[in-house]
Amino acid sequence: MNDSKNPSIYNVPNALTSVRFALAIAVMLLIPSGEYLIGLIIFIVAASTDWMDGYWARKYGQVTKLGRIFDPFVDKIIICGTFIALVEVEGSGVKSWMATIVVGRELLVTSLRGMIEGSGGDFSASQLGKWKMVLQCGAVIAILVALLNPGNQYLDWTSIVFLWGAIVLTVFSGVDYSRAAARVMRDTPSHAGSQGE
User: Is residue 27 exposed (0-12), middle (13-18) or buried (19+ Cβ within 10 Å)?
Assistant: First the structure.
């Protein structure tokens, strides 16, 4: 029997997250295959519905431990997987080192959050991190639109601006989170013994 304190994992929010995970996989398969239009549409749907599962879970008391892990995991798969897929596409402008920065930043922040929140600290997402996500999504959309319209210099330059803006903000937000984590660990003595684990 389920109650509000221990909701079943078989609920609408987790189902929505699972659908978004499937969409993310589809995007990673479609982009290297040259199916830019359908890939663009699916990416927009997957990225723009990010809020739906969390909103539903909070409103109807269906927050689960699985959902708290699976939802941010899928968010990272959508962005990291798409950037990795774009590396394979000639003319996308995405280099392997750029995708590495995107993936590395997510791994770093996830590790810091797990360490701090696991010790009872608060490491909520910052506004900078949210804007980073917006720019990354904007970069993917701009790149795919440019790929759909080869030879359009305006779209090419727009995609370049969004891409470099996303990479710069990704690095900056990673540094910002690292500084915030250092402050939390410095101000909370109990973290000192867990750093080597």
Answer: buried
* Tokens standing for residue 60: 């109807």
Per-residue pLDDT tens over the stretch 53-87:
666 667 766 666 666 777 788 889 999 999 999 99
By C-alpha distance, which of 126, 110, 118, 108 is closest to 185?
118
DSSP 8-state symbol, 92: S
- Three-class DSSP category at 6: strand
- 12-194 sits in which CATH class? mainly alpha
Encoding tokens for residue 69? 């892990």
Percent of the chain with pLDDT over 90: 48
User: Higher confidence at residue 144 or residue 61?
Assistant: 144
Beta pairing partners, 3: 6
Q: What confidence score (pLDDT) does residue 92 get?
A: 95
Nearest to 36 by CA among 79, 91, 100: 91
Q: Are 36 and 147 in contact (CB under 8 A)?
A: yes
Closest by CA position to 43, among listed 1, 88, 77: 77
DSSP state of 62: -
DSSP calls for 72-88: HHHHHHHHHHHHHHHHT
* Span 42-61, average pLDDT: 77
Tell me phi and psi for residue 151, to 5 degrees. 90, -10
pLDDT value of position 2? 47
